[in-house]
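Open question from group meeting: does this chain pack into something compact, or does most of it stay loose? Before anyone orders reagents, we agreed to write out a predicted structure and look at it together. Recording both the input and the output here so the notebook holds the full record.
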Amino acid sequence: MGVFIALVIGFGSMIIGFMGEGGHVSALISWTPAVIVFGGTLGSVLLAFPLEYVKNIGKIIKVSFTAKSKDLTTIIVYFSTLATKVKREGVLSIESEAADSSDVDPFIKKGIQLVVDGESYEMIRDTLELEMDAISERHKTGAAIFNSAGGTAPTMGIVGTVLGLVHVLGGLADADMSQLGASISSAFLATLYGLASANLVFLPIGTRLKKIAQKEEMEKELILEAILMIQQGVRPNLINEKLTGFLNGSEIVVDSNSIHEGKAVTEV
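Structure tokens returned:
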């Protein structure tokens, strides 16, 4: 919802300001500059990135609009609870977390299953780090696509404006002077489309995806450390204490007395 509100504020402010100067919204609509700007931008992106990356653009946009960060405090409580269960009942007691809990993050389920299977510390770390790298690469590629589009769109806007002016000036000798202003104004729409789309859509989404990637990397690193400590049999209170180092000052510090109130961590 916050993303939609931001888009409404951005484009709404631009349109309201234009109308306040006496302009009409219909003057901002033209299909030819849109074809030049967005078609050219798409072509540039397709040239810069393999098709298998670009074809997932819909999923990337969905992530940028709907992604929600997990509560790190809840994750810490969850793993403290698991560690307590392992200490009391053994490693096999948490096998159900990997097999039956559909609401548990698949990354957590994989880590728990590796622990239950008795894999070594090195094997668990290597396996989970490979998955973390793959997730991080997907996010970075998505951000790079939108940053590329944000860099190209304004340039294509200038190209569209130049093409429009070439057309207008080429027919200047026979032009109806009453239509000259409208033709020049239409030519500058390409620059408007390029600048507006870059600074209100492409670049902000690229930045947003980068922030989402950074947050998820921290979450996965916390989960990795928690799973490795459970594999090593570290005491629950010590796990709780070490993992709170991932929290920043604005987040609630986990109370060691609350570790028995852990809840399953749902997938984003």
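Observations to bring back to the group:
The chain has a mean pLDDT of 84.
Residues 18 and 24 are 8 Å apart (CA to CA).
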